[in-house]
Amino acid sequence: MTREHLVGCARGKDQGAADLFDYLVRELDCLGIRNGISRLVIDANRYEDQDELIPTSWGCKEIPGNIGLSDDERARRIERYYRPYHQALQDSLLQCERFHGKVFYFAIHAMAEEFEGQMREMDFALISNRGVELTPFLEERLQTAGYAASVNEPYHLERDIVRVPHGSEMERFNERAVLIEMNERCRGDDRAKEALLNAIRGTVEENYP
To answer: ∠ CA 163-167-170 to the nearest 5 degrees?
Structure first.
């Protein structure tokens, strides 16, 4: 995997997600864990047993450094890049639970406006599995602010957002977990960022005991 290949592939990261993440963490005064590793090296948004954990292609482009990867190299990447991020996330969730009792987890991503020839009309996509009860609150607030929001579109989760083994005690955090995708066309739209901020804040306030 070369630096030139990582830099040359725009889909190696979520465009605009880092700025949105920083804004939300600052304004909500909450804990946040940012994954700084390109998904072309290892995709932290997969389970360890998924083939897509270390992709061999992205769109129509092959990723030479990931083709024919040895078991040792796969294990090295998991140990160096994947597990530390997920351990930090789990530690943060547990810390929040100790202080506040009830934890809400919002995973921030950005999605391409066009994917495989299809235009994505939604401004925000709200993706959840066990935390789906929160999505109507977010959807209503975003739509009231003038932004189109979809629930479990353009895709849905077959497994949960907190990537832990089935039966783990950490699975409980998925009950109030939502993955939020912001359409890349909303980058630089301060109103969109503020609308999402207010939607998250209002959802938490309405669902906190």
So the answer is: 50
Place of tokens 């990537």: 163
Contacts of 73 (CB under 8 A, 6+ apart): none
Which tokens go with 177?
Answer: 């977990």
State phi, psi for 126 to the nearest 5 degrees: -110, 115
Helix (H) or strand (E) holding 125, with range, is strand 124-127
User: 23: which residues sit within 8 A by CB, 6+ positions away?
Assistant: 193, 197
CATH number at residue 94: 3.40.630.40
For residue 147, what are the CA distances in angstroms to 5, 189, 191, 199, 200?
35, 11, 10, 11, 14
- pLDDT digits 0-9 by tens, 76-109: 999 999 999 999 999 999 999 999 999 999 999 9
pLDDT greater than 90 at residue 30: yes
Report the amino acid identity of residue 70: S
* Buried b / exposed e along 188-204 (16+ C-beta atoms within 10 A): eeeebbebbbebbeebb
On average, the pLDDT of the chain sits at 90
- Say how many domains are in the chain: 1
Contact call for residues 180 and 138 (beta carbons, < 8 A): yes
Expressed as residue numbers, the domain containing 105 is 3-207
